[in-house]
Design a protein that fits this description.
This protein has 340 residues and is an alpha/beta fold. Helix content is 24%, strand content 25%. Helix 4 crosses helix 5 and helix 4 crosses helix 10. The longest helix has 14 residues. It is globular and about 65 Å long. One of its GO terms (molecular function) is alcohol dehydrogenase (NAD+) activity. Keywords: Metal-binding, NAD, Oxidoreductase, Zinc. It catalyses: a secondary alcohol + NAD(+) = a ketone + NADH + H(+); a primary alcohol + NAD(+) = an aldehyde + NADH + H(+). It is an enzyme of class 1 (oxidoreductase).
């Protein structure tokens, strides 16, 4: 490929500026990199933080998008195990250095020099993207690109969080929030054999929650959430997907002894929790990051086995600004996916 070839991409020229479709130069992959012909890219809530400058070290203009799916179009020097034409996904985990102490311990998700598409290099709201080869996850034949894209962030975050808890099949697990993350969390929890409680605002979400696999629904606006959880017998785990610290804290009293509050909903607000609430019942509160490329592969494999899929609305790349706006103001029904 000509290193100066161009492709269409969506750029944000400065903090909070409008998303704009432009022609950009496509860099050829360097050593240990591949270039992906993007077929689909999910629109994630974290894109809002990127566009509005909420992460350190951002450079402008930037191209958002970290839920990427497509085919390898070009392979750089030193890349082994990947070939042109391979179907691949890249999520929030966009590469690791293999040199820092976390990497030397095998803890790649906490790489001191970890890279995230859109944050550390141009993201997937584009027809083409160049990425580190160690960020690649192989997409199963049973998943379309649009189905695979959200698994790179929303899917792996919910699935890997649940399987990292102490809960066993048959245990009761509550999922707080029924949005882009929560609707996948409910599906994964049910498919993993947990008695699943969905917690969300308003009675209108009950049918949706049960359609997604929940056995129980708690309307958080209708009364004390912890008491409602305890009426059902309490939960071994709460997976907190809603980015609302007060709502997270309101579930704590609904946990069983030694229960876990696992937080994946991103909020900068302090948790209104007193140590005395934790000590007696021996509760734990854990923040859970996303997952490595291999975790993404295992998430997709489980999705194939179980039938779990993100509920998506597809939009063409030219409508990226509209798709992003729908996500940002809550009009999106679960997940938006851009297709090229």
């Amino acid at each position: 490929m000509n290193p100066k070839a161009s492709h269409r991409a969506v750029q944000v020229p400065s903090v909070g500026a409008p998303l704009t479709l432009v022609d950009v130069e496509t860099p050829a992959p360097g050593p240990d990199q591949v270039r992906i012909a993007v077929a689909a890219c999910g629109v994630c809530g974290t894109d809002q933080g990127i566009v509005n400058g909420g992460f350190p070290g951002l450079s402008w203009p930037l191209t958002p998008g970290h839920e990427i799916a497509g085919t390898i179009a070009e392979v750089g020097a030193g890349v082994a195990g990947w070939e042109v034409g391979d179907r691949v996904a890249v999520g929030w985990f966009g590469g690791h250095c293999n040199r820092c102490i976390p990497c030397r311990k095998g803890d790649f998700i906490h790489c001191a020099n970890g890279q995230v598409p859109s944050w550390h290099y141009p993201g997937g709201y584009a027809e083409s993207v160049t990425v580190p080869a160690n960020a690649l996850a192989r997409i199963p034949a049973e998943l379309s690109f649009a189905e695979a894209a959200p698994m790179g962030c929303a899917g792996v975050t919910t699935y890997h969080a649940l399987r990292s808890t102490q809960a066993q099949p048959g245990d009761r697990v509550a999922v707080l929030g029924l949005g882009g993350l929560g609707h996948l969390g409910v599906q994964f929890a049910a498919a993993m054999g947990f008695e699943t409680i969905a917690i969300a605002r308003g009675a209108a979400r009950a049918d949706d929650a049960r359609d997604l696999g929940a056995q129980h629904y708690i309307d958080s606006t209708a009364g004390d959430v912890s008491q409602a959880m305890q009426t059902l017998g309490g939960a071994a785990v709460v997976l907190a997907t809603a980015a609302n610290s007060a709502a997270m804290a309101a579930t704590l009293g609904g946990l069983q002894p030694r229960g876990e509050l696992v937080i994946i909903g991103v909020s900068a607000e302090p948790l209104p929790i007193a140590p005395v609430q934790l000590i007696g019942p021996g509760l734990s509160i854990v923040g859970h990051p996303s997952g490595t490329a291999r975790d993404v592969e295992e998430t997709m494999a489980f999705a194939v086995l179980s039938g779990v899929r993100a509920r998506i609305e597809e939009r063409p790349l030219a409508q990226a600004a509209e798709a992003y706006a729908a996500m940002a103001d809550g009009r999106a029904h679960y997940r938006m996916v851009l297709t090229m």
